[in-house]
Amino acid sequence: MGRRYRLNKNCLGCRLANGLEAAHMVYEDEVIACFLDIAPLNEGHLLLLPKEHHLDLDELDERTAMAIMRMSAALSKMLKELYRPDGITILQNGGKFNDLGHYHMHVFPRYEDDGFAWVEPADRNNNRGRLEETKAAIDGISKRYLHKPMGENDV
């Protein structure tokens, strides 16, 4: 019997990942799906999605998160061999910046003059000057999130 997924039929990501909408599928298994982005930055721009409905990274179960990370590494190797890019970008936007309404990771080849840029905004809030305070705030909460023992299925 196949795995049962929590799907949202109103979610385009769910429909694409589960073959209910047409996509140029590159890979799929029982947990994840990978297909070509319909608005590629460069040739070979891929989207990697869980088949189950999730919006953000912190909602993914360990099995799904590990499947996505392993596949992103395999896709990176494949894109490097196929396109010989200057680099690979792996990108994920969460919350209101997630334009699909379903967790997805972009994996795409990059070239020096491809026009894609990480633009660092002006440091209006003096974030660079507040590194010590920021570190103290993170230290105050990190044990609840970052010091969990690894499970049997973790790598």
From TrEMBL:
<dbReference type="GO" id="GO:0016787">
    <property type="term" value="F:hydrolase activity"/>
</dbReference>
<keyword id="KW-0378">Hydrolase</keyword>
<dbReference type="GO" id="GO:0009117">
    <property type="term" value="P:nucleotide metabolic process"/>
</dbReference>
<dbReference type="InterPro" id="IPR011146">
    <property type="entry name" value="HIT-like"/>
</dbReference>
<feature type="active site" description="Tele-AMP-histidine intermediate">
    <location>
        <position position="106"/>
    </location>
</feature>
<protein>
    <submittedName>
        <fullName>HIT family hydrolase</fullName>
    </submittedName>
</protein>
<feature type="short sequence motif" description="Histidine triad motif">
    <location>
        <begin position="102"/>
        <end position="106"/>
    </location>
</feature>
<dbReference type="Pfam" id="PF01230">
    <property type="entry name" value="HIT"/>
</dbReference>
<dbReference type="InterPro" id="IPR036265">
    <property type="entry name" value="HIT-like_sf"/>
</dbReference>
<feature type="domain" description="HIT">
    <location>
        <begin position="12"/>
        <end position="117"/>
    </location>
</feature>
<dbReference type="InterPro" id="IPR001310">
    <property type="entry name" value="Histidine_triad_HIT"/>
</dbReference>
